[in-house]
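User: I'm new to structure prediction. If I give you an amino acid sequence, what do you actually give back? Let's try with this one:
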Amino acid sequence: MFPSPAMLFLYPLIYTFSGICFLVFVVYQYLVRKLRFHRPKNFPYKGQVPNPAAKGKKAVVCIGDSITHGNVSANYVDMLERWMGEDFFFYNAGVNSDLTYTVLDRLEAIIAAQPDFVTLLIGTNDVNATVSKASLKKYYQFHKITPGALPDFESFQQNYVEIVRQLKTQTKAQIAVLSLPVMGENLQNEANLKADVYSEFIKTLAANEQVTYLPVRERMKDFLKSHPKKLSYEYKDTIKLMYLSVIKHELLGQNWDKIGLSHGMDLTQDNLHFNTRGAAMIASLVEKWLKQ
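Assistant: Good question. You get back a string of structure tokens that encode the predicted 3D arrangement of the chain. For your 292 residues, that looks like this:
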């Protein structure tokens, strides 16, 4: 029995649709693994002895989230390695979507690396989790927050103090804490206003604990204030922009600077992650501190 003309017409469409669905599934799985499970070069794993490549160099551990991890943005740790790699060995202890909660959970591995210097850039996701229910749901799904726990300014303060004090008492490292980078280029959005408060706490803590404070936020805000422009996207577009940026980078081969320009942004490409200019602002502050 021969298929009808209608079925002969539909077969190619069915195969094409099935192929597209399979391709979308493969791409989605790849992006999920890249965002959730990938770890950066020279990541300090639990139970790992200090990296042999660090021998004869000062060891620096850069602690943070995706901004430090650097696989969905320009990588400021890689910049530091290029600039200062002859004298310093850089551990990249950045993990995508991390909050202060999860940094505390993996602090043992960081301490075991026996660093001479530590930088701490964490809190963007703590703020982001308080801005929208969709963001909060994502952190629960990614197991970044214990079910039932509700991130707020008080929990951030407690976690941050504990991180700094453990680093002070369990390592001999010199410590620098960094204010939070801008969260979108509209400095008056809810996330940025909250990040101002969180960063002021970090600055006060640095003085009280006698550790170095690096004004990342202040530097970025000064730049944006001196380069005002009409923005094409608001902070509510962040999740959409983040996935769009990763697709443009991974599938179309566009660099983060080009993506940021296409979204009408000067420092970021998706409100949270940074292009070369934004990453260099972070790296240059760390570089100056290490040289001192």
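You can read the tokens as a compact description of the fold. Here is one thing that stands out. Residues 22-28 have pLDDT under 50 and may be disordered.
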